[in-house]
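Structure ticket #2291
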Amino acid sequence: MQEVQFYRDATVPFFELKLCDSGRLAYKKHAHEEYSLGIIQQGKSSFWCEGGTVEICPQTVVLIPPGVVHSCNPERAAQWQYKMLFIEAGWVKSFLASIGAPDCDQPLVRTMSRFKAAAMSRLVDTLASLLHPMAKEAQVMTLLEQMVTDSIRTAQLTVAKHLPKRKIIMEYLQDNFLHKVTLAELEQISGISRFNIVRSFKEEFSIPPHTYQTLLRINYAKKQLRQNRHILDVAYEAGFYDQSHFNKVFKSHTGATPEKYQKLK
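Resolution: structure written out below.
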């Protein structure tokens, strides 16, 4: 792995991912304009933040609000490894408000269980994958909610109020599943805050909207494959990045690769 890598996704522009595998890069005391969510993977470091110091190590997760001055000084440079997710401040504030959580204006430093820390690390990894934009936005929501769980005042959604709007989202996806649909787009057509859409839709239909869209795409692909169309053409038409991505998702839903499915009689 390179010492530092960055990842951005133009379709989900509110976050940036940083992967660091070296302690040789010394950072002076600094602050970010964004919220910073860090997951420590290896090594130990002294985390200084506005006059206070705490030791952070594997299974430590840190959430730093915008404008908070901080620095890290790893004990052993060769062993220092972490992932950092920078998230646009306005987006985070809107999300916290949508789930009834108070604004986070002080750093949160939490030691997670090994299982939970590993799960959060895997969620971060998916942000640099070919995951659908809606799914990536949902992953960031999950990460933040897990981090602020103890301070959340759970927002109670009124099922009767949102039910017709959820149906609007379902019908919209049925009509537009071949396109890149975003949560902002679903918010506009439904009137439900995009920060509530994933949870609200899942409450009614048991799956999040991006999963529902994937199911529609797979069902469409099955029909096209049964017409003996070229697999690569079907993959791109159904909204998949390439044939490898298509093969993986198709098999996870059907138990067979597109090629094997097409040959079934």
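Closing remark: The chain is about 45% helix and 20% strand.
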